[in-house]
Amino acid sequence: MVEAGENPGVVARILGVTRCSLRRWRHSARHPNGLAAKPTPGPKSRLTTQQLASLEALLKQGAVAHGWPNHLWTSKRVAVLIQRHFGVHYHPAHVYRLLVRRLHWTSQKPQKRARERNLKEVERWLADDWPRIIRQAFQRRARIALLDESGFLLSPVVRRTMAPRGQTPILDCSDRHDRISVISAITLSPRALRVGLHFMLLGDNENFHGEEVGLFLRQLKGEVGGPWTIVWDRNQIHSRSKVVKAWLAKHPEVVVEDFPTHAPNANPDEDVWSWTKYGRLCNLAPNDVVELRQHIWNALVALKSQPQLLTSFVLHARVPLLLT
């Protein structure tokens, strides 16, 4: 039909195939034996199926078991492992394709975890204390604020980008160490099942002390009244500040709970900083702190209007509120 002048797209729809398949069949028909000819086989894999299974078992042991200083696998390390155990030399680029296509591995960013963390205590806190905190807040008709502080530097957080081979991009940026400190809280309403975000930016190059934390607590209480349960880490500006203690003493309807030690991933507010610094504002090179402040403000305002994204932060931290 195509050779007779019919439109290839019409023929493909009649046969129920793609135009790509139609072109491939026409190409094969021009060769000896036509469509009955067997396709030319590609190069034979130098690792058998059994060897690939053995390779995956070796990889699951972790890189430390094979002499590297951490458990992370790179294409170069896997290439060395294949050479060492199977005598096959692969280029790292081919090793990457092999890991993706044959072993179905993916490229992932490692999560940091403090060596000092007590894993059993963290698991106990997640299983016992979190449900208790939410249950008691529900009974008190209180909202929950998951609070944390962070800082944004004038120097950019540099992430990878695309460019022609051999032409490394140049990011013009300031070499000054100016910064802006920010405090924020992801807020939960156990009864209404709502997730929100509140934040406050300090002045240029200012650090957090008990006074600034107390100011944010007053702001939070003023924006949304009623009883609260504040959950934060065990930083001294939280637990030992006289200003914070005095403010809490005047507001008995505000209950304070602590996250487990060395477990920042238990706080969903950590993902606010991760999303802002390494996502929304990565590779940002502002001219001065005024421009940096505006970008931080715009990013947090945009995040505040995305409750689904905030909910994903809550679920990532294994907060049981939205799972019940």
For the biggest sheet, the summary is:
5 strands, mixed
Strand residue content? 5-15%
Stretches where pLDDT is under 50 for at least 5 consecutive residues are none
- N- and C-termini, Cα separation: 61 Å
- Rg measurement, Å: 28 Å
Helix content: 40-55%
- Our count of helices gives 12
Main sheet strand line-up:
3-2-1-4-5
Query: What class would the helix/strand composition place it in?
Result: alpha/beta
- Order of SSEs: HHHHHHEEEHEHHEHHH
Number of strands: 5
Shape: elongated
Mean pLDDT: 89
Give the helices and strands, then pairings.
Elements: H1 8-15, H2 19-29, H3 49-60, H4 75-86, H5 92-101, H6 119-140, E1 143-153, E2 179-189, E3 194-204, H7 210-223, E4 228-232, H8 236-239, H9 242-250, E5 254-258, H10 269-280, H11 289-304, H12 307-316
Parallel strand pairs: 1-4, 4-5
Antiparallel strand pairs: 1-2, 2-3
Helix pairs in contact: 4-5, 7-9
